[in-house]
Design brief:
The structure holds three protein chains of three kinds. By secondary structure, chain B is α/β, with parallel strands linked by helices. Chain B contains ten helices and ten strands. Chain B is globular. A two-stranded antiparallel sheet of chain C has the order 1-2.
Chain lengths: ~450, ~240, ~325
């Protein structure tokens, strides 16, 4: 038993040390200007803010993986669908869009969903082989009606002011409201996929989520009526002041001068600090909730299921249902992160949803931070995000150093040119090394 | 006195911290049929696994033909002449019967067609289905394929873990007849059996284990005749 | 005549492209299914293995080109393929040594192996990018067409044209050869049977004296050969772009699961099922309908789903199989 106590003692100072290291990194980034750091507080805070958002996403992934051992390979999809919420909730309505096909569109979606629901009911109620035929008929008929309604509606909406809008538009509600809505969107998608893939082999969930991730991103990219597709939605409202307004505000400029900052820099820093405060608030709230949940009877049961599924099942626990629960909750948190990200960017650009960046880097964060440990995921996320961003700068520096002995030539320029890709190798190596030599991560689960 | 072909003496060990075997001794002579019987949880299968090296022994030695094999892995024991038929998962279900038997002879570089012919002679029902997938056969025939696979290694000691579990009485009698035939060719047989009565009938030597220790050891007939064995283990 | 035109249109726009694509998926799915059968995990790095193999092939191809060696009219890449396979196989075996072997010895949960394969995927992805960059590369120096549209029209007098590209023929021929060789190996050779035995029942295979390290090594070599071949054929057909190989992972998994994970025949069938569904569902049938029902002028393109959603087709197939027959059509390993 003494071993465990020693272990606890060693892990007690791990979190504070990690926090100090992180603070040091961000301060260095903000103050020191050299080959490694930019010396700009704006850059430092920008990295921190995205790090905080990544931490929210990592928290969601940690619930799925750390609490329940579920491998979600479609994080990017849940991030993307959460990001849809700010567009649909907070942007202003598009004039004429609703009239051009709104009701018809809703009807089409209702028909589509209705057909699937009806098919599901028929499949259960009718006898074999009648049910197969009935389901097929309902699905085909439903699809034809859906397409007939849907295509006309979409053509109408997309034709409406297609240069500046061409989408259905938003509700014009406060943008903060869109965050929980984003979580709901992601939860809905997660429920659908979890219903199908949970209860089967663990790899099947990974493959199915890989698919849903790609499909959600494809939908965002191609359905212009929804969020303008690859034409991007810009000007999503902010919950914090705009830099331009601050720079015009005489009071703010005077305050900035007191700190010895020019208005442009100061406004950037202030806006980012506002975001950082907001994100930290959300993150702390989530962390507290997650810790409470983890230490509640529910959380203990979750971990019991993870550690021995067979035994839990034998004790009468419905493992698949519990897994569905945690999968939906985790995805909701990821979706919340997605909505926060779009809010901060003020821009919805579906082409930026790269699975390597949004699925697998988040995974590295969780594994490095310590699967099963919420605080670990958060700190791991911020650390990995910092490294991920800086590696883009460090990679070429490093390559330049390595190749400095080489004579100029095709090989040297090729190596220097390919240096930014080094970070993929680095991420992979970090993941493999942690998985192998320290599978419990920087902050091990208690 | 000559050494028995297999002599596993004073075995003590288990899977976790608690010992399942407590000073258990099993010996089999050449061409003999030895049967281990006993109540549930007596460590019958464990004793056989210990003989085969699937379990680390804390005490005791296993000698095969006078050679100490206590520290060898199961695979190495196969090379030394032990054949083992597990109770379940004892065939390659998606492979044909013939391929199953071929895999038994995998380590034998030489021509094994005569051994194959012997196995088919022994199990004509299996010979008829040599091109069929083993997983599609009936329970009794699968068991025959499993025994056949083990015979393909040309073992001098064949170990069977409950070979008649889950097969009908007719198939069981048939299988026991085959086992007697195998023993007549000079192969020693060590068998764990749930159907104690029938197994002891064909046994040259029977071991009754209780809580991982030898309780009674005698010829099969003598055990069947012993009133205490009958009362406690054979149901009167 | 119109019926013939309709048939030619179907052949030209659906059957030929789907067959070539199906062959590429089949080779990919074979690799995934073999690794699953022997090593018992879904290899997320398989798409990037294909990309790496294709990149290695392109580099050898450039070397051959520089030496003035050409296989014209066949694509010279075929000559480079064996070298690329050898390089990829070495990388796979090395990867197994430093990554997977440890987890295999510890007998971890398969999902940990999947996670490790994600790490490998990252590394291979980065390696490929470093070696060859992210740009689109064409390396098909063979003849373009076996049958071209104008010739076909002249021969047959039909108004509908038919083109058969050489890369498509090469794909089908090479796939047929690769499948023949693989099935011959698995069903006829001692080593192949040992591999199947190991996949069927690991413990019994060990008891039969089959050497697990050798089986694992063979599996990686074969998987590397299949992945490289698939990657090169896909690149010849559609040009090489590193990111495309990540995206092809989903249809490959779908194909392997449809056929039943662990079942090689199923993987081949699954590849063609996925490819034909994908192409048929995203093809605009308006032209064919025009030939068959001359009086009917449909309003839309008669396209069930736009091509951007072709991955949705694999996904739906995947979902349907998971819902109704999780072991796949050809019964693979247990769920």
């Amino acid at each position: 038993m003494s071993n465990t106590r020693q272990h606890d003692a060693s892990s007690a100072w791990r979190a504070p040390v990690l926090i100090v290291v992180l603070i040091a990194l961000f301060v260095l980034e903000g103050t020191t200007r050299n080959a490694m750091f930019s010396g700009s507080w704006n850059t430092s805070l920008a990295i921190l803010n995205m790090g905080l958002i990544s931490a929210v996403m990592a928290l969601g992934v940690n619930m799925q993986w750390g609490y329940a051992g579920l491998f979600n390979a479609g994080v990017v999809g849940f991030v993307a669908i959460g990001g849809l919420a700010p567009v649909l909730i907070s942007t202003g309505p598009v004039a004429g869009a609703w009239g051009a096909g709104g009701p018809r569109l809703l009807l089409a979606l209702a028909v589509g969903l209705g057909a699937i629901a009806l098919a599901a009911v028929l499949w259960r109620r009718l006898m074999r082989p009648l049910n197969g035929v009935a389901v097929l008929v309902v699905i085909i008929a439903g699809f034809v009606i859906y397409r007939a309604l849907f295509d006309v509606a979409v053509t109408g909406i997309e034709a409406n002011n297609s240069a500046a809008a061409g989408n259905i538009g938003g509700l014009g509600l406060p943008v903060l409201l869109s965050w929980p809505v984003g979580a709901l969107f992601a939860a809905g998608a997660a429920w659908c996929i979890g219903k199908v893939a949970l209860g089967l082999r663990s790899d099947y969930l990974a493959i199915a989520t890989l698919g849903i991730g790609e499909i959600i991103v494809a939908v965002l990219r191609n359905e212009e009526w929804l969020a303008r597709g690859v034409k991007n939605v810009t000007g999503i409202p902010r919950p914090v002041p705009y830099e331009i307004d601050l720079q015009r505000d005489a009071g703010f400029v005077a305050k900035a001068a007191d700190f010895g900052l020019d208005p442009a820099t100061a406004s950037g820093i202030w806006v980012k600090l506002c975001y950082a405060g907001l994100f930290t608030l959300v993150l702390v709230a989530l962390l507290v909730l997650a810790q409470l949940a983890l230490n509640s009877p529910w959380g203990r049961m979750m971990r019991a299921i993870r550690d021995n599924e067979t035994a839990a099942e034998a004790m009468g626990k419905n493992v698949t249902r519990r897994h569905l629960q945690i999968f939906v909750i985790g995805s909701a948190v990821i979706g919340l992160g997605g909505a926060m990200m779009i809010t901060m960017d003020g821009l919805m650009s579906p082409n930026s949803y790269n699975p390597l960046r949004y699925t697998f880097v988040i995974w590295v964060m969780v594994i490095v931070g310590g699967s099963g440990n919420n605080l670990g995921s958060i700190l791991g996320a911020i650390l990995i995000w910092f490294i991920w961003i800086k590696a883009e700068v460090w990679g070429p520096e490093f390559m330049g150093f390595v190749t400095s002995f080489m004579s100029d030539g095709a090989l040297k320029s090729h190596l220097i040119g390919s240096a930014p890709h080094m970070r993929f190798v680095a991420m992979g190596l970090v993941l493999l090394l942690v998985l192998r030599f320290s599978p419990r991560g920087l902050l091990p689960e208690k | 006195m000559t050494q028995p072909y297999l002599s596993a003496t004073h075995m003590r060990g288990g899977y976790g911290k608690a010992d399942i075997l407590n000073d258990c001794t099993i010996t089999v002579d050449r061409g003999q049929i030895a049967v281990i019987v006993g109540p549930n949880g007596a460590g019958k299968s464990t004793a056989m696994k210990a003989v085969f090296g699937m379990l680390n022994l804390r005490e005791g030695t296993v000698l095969l033909n006078g050679e100490d094999i206590t520290r060898l892995t199961p695979q190495e024991r196969v090379h030394k002449g032990m054949g083992f038929v597990p109770q379940t998962h004892n065939i390659f279900p998606t492979m044909t019967v013939e391929e199953n038997l071929e895999m038994g002879a995998f380590t034998r570089g030489e021509d094994f067609s005569d051994t194959l012919a012997q196995v088919y002679d022994l199990f004509p029902a299996v010979a008829m289905k040599r091109r069929q997938r083993a997983g599609e056969l009936s329970g009794g025939q699968r068991q025959q394929v499993a025994v056949g696979r083990a015979l393909m290694t040309k073992p001098s000691l064949l170990m069977l873990d409950e070979p008649t579990a889950g097969v009908s009485p007719i198939v069981m009698d048939e299988l026991f007849d085959r086992i007697i035939e195998i023993a007549r060719t000079g192969i020693s047989i060590l068998m764990v059996e749930q159907n104690a009565r029938q197994a002891l009938e064909i046994a040259d030597i029977g071991y009754v284990l209780v809580q991982g220790a030898n309780r009674f050891t005698d010829s099969g007939k003598a055990l069947m005749a012993d009133p205490e064995v009958r009362r406690t283990f054979l149901g009167g | 005549m119109d019926i013939l035109n309709a048939l030619v249109a179907i052949l030209n726009f659906v059957v030929i492209p789907a067959a070539a694509y199906g062959a590429q998926l089949a080779l990919g799915a074979l690799g995934v299914t073999l690794i699953y059968g022997i090593l018992r995990f879904s290899n997320f790095a398989h798409g990037d293995t294909m990309a790496f193999g294709a990149a290695a092939c392109i580099i050898v191809f450039w070397g051959l080109q520089a030496l003035g060696i050409s296989l014209h009219p066949l694509p010279t890449a075929l000559l480079a393929l064996p070298v690329a396979i050898a390089v990829t196989a070495l990388l796979m075996i090395a990867t197994d040594r430093v990554v997977y072997r440890y987890y295999r010895a510890k007998r971890v949960d398969p999902i940990i192996m999947v996670m490790a394969s994600v790490g490998v995927m990252f590394v291979m992805n980065g390696l490929t990018r470093i070696i060859i960059g992210v740009d689109e590369i064409r390396f098909d120096d063979g003849a373009r067409f076996v049958i071209n549209v104008a010739d076909f029209r002249a021969w047959t007098g039909l108004s509908e044209g038919l083109a058969l590209r050489q890369s498509q023929v090469v794909t089908l021929v090479v796939t047929a050869l690769a499948c023949w060789a693989l099935f011959w190996f698995l069903n006829r050779t001692r080593s192949g049977k040992a591999m199947r035995a190991y996949s069927d029942n690991e413990d019994l295979a060990l008891l039969s004296g089959i050497d697990p390290d050798r089986i694992v090594r063979m599996t990686w070599i074969i998987a590397a050969a299949l992945a490289t071949t698939a990657g090169v054929l896909y690149g010849l057909d559609k040009s090489f772009k590193a990111f495309n190989y990540f995206q092809i992972l989903l249809p490959i998994f779908a194909a392997a699961i449809v056929g039943g994970l662990g079942n090689p025949v199923g993987a081949v069938a699954g590849g063609f099922i996925v490819a034909f569904s994908e192409v048929a569902i995203t093809y605009p049938w308006r032209k064919v309908a025009g030939y068959l029902f001359p009086g009917w002028q449909p309003e839309g393109l008669l396209q069930l789903l736009s091509t951007e959603y072709k991955f949705a087709v694999s996904f739906v197939i995947l979902i349907v199989v998971l819902l109704f027959r999780p072991t796949g059509l050809f019964r693979g390993k247990s769920v």
